[in-house]
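Record type: monomer structure entry
Structure origin: computed from sequence
Chain ID: A
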Amino acid sequence: MFMKKIIICISGASGIIYAKRLLEVLKNYENIESNLIISKSAQEIIKYELKTSMEEFINLSDNYYDNNDFFTPVASGSNKFDAVLVIPCSMKTLSAIANGYSHNLIGRVCDIALKEQRKLIIMPREMPFSTIHLENMLKLSKYGALIMPPIPAYYNDPKSIEDIVDFIVGRVLDNLDIENNLFNRWKE
């Protein structure tokens, strides 16, 4: 059976709930391997926003890699993975990726995705966007990254925060070519 290998990177921005829900949903797919990298500041945000332990959060993934460990399999372009997501993506991480600054494992796997022309999805979490933020997003878009700010839709008549989160995660899965029914789709 074909195994889709996805790397989920979490940087220090609000919105960790999107990454958590994505990891929970991916657990339901036998043919998907989730690989997790968490920045130091994101570790603090996980505790603050989700009121959960790092161990509990890491256990949602199939593999966990330390953000400072360049000797992991995913740190090499010869390691075959299908996609990288930065969910959520801080402006610091966005800038590092856009400018090829691979100072940590998150930057390195994003650099690999760009150079190997693999799918890279960036979910920036900031508002409003400054001109610098927009220029970095434009640069990454020109390099082939998909820029997906987690902007909810309301045509699907969400009733809860979970519905809004599921819409965002469902759209991520759509862009990874992973079938899902997490949200009510637009009907003609």
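Annotation 1: The chain has seven helices and six strands.
Annotation 2: The mean pLDDT is 96.
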